[in-house]
Design goal:
Elements: E1 6-12, E2 20-26, H1 31-47, E3 51-58, E4 76-81, E5 86-89, H2 95-101
Parallel strand pairs: 2-3
Antiparallel strand pairs: 1-3, 2-4, 4-5
């Protein structure tokens, strides 16, 4: 993960499936932030194929960006597309919880 205020990872293949737009809000390059990014990238590669973009927003560099998505805890993942917008708070280490939160798996 780069140290810029925002950093995008794009993985788009040629497909008619919808593209997932994900935004991960972090506070610098802390262990929890790095772990959340690594977990998110792994989950996306395993379950979304090439149909996703990840934008990492470092709120230590630009705290004003938190207002638009109403971010109150970090790290927070926001699914922008497909709608509806969904939020998951934490380091994303519980894969099953993340999949349910992203609507990739039904709730038990």
């Amino acid at each position: 993960m780069k140290a810029s205020a925002t950093h995008a990872v794009r993985k788009r293949g040629i497909s008619k499936k919808p593209t997932w737009e994900l935004r991960l809000y972090v506070a610098g390059q802390t262990g929890k932030s790095l772990q959340a990014f690594a977990n998110l990238k792994r989950i996306c590669e395993e379950h979304l194929g090439c149909q996703y973009t990840i934008e990492v927003v470092d709120l230590t560099k630009n705290p004003g960006l938190a207002k638009g998505d109403q971010i109150f805890a970090l790290p927070t993942l926001v699914r922008k597309l497909p709608e509806p917008v969904r939020k998951i708070i934490g380091d994303l280490s519980n894969t099953e919880r993340v999949l349910v939160g992203l609507d990739l798996r039904p709730r038990a």
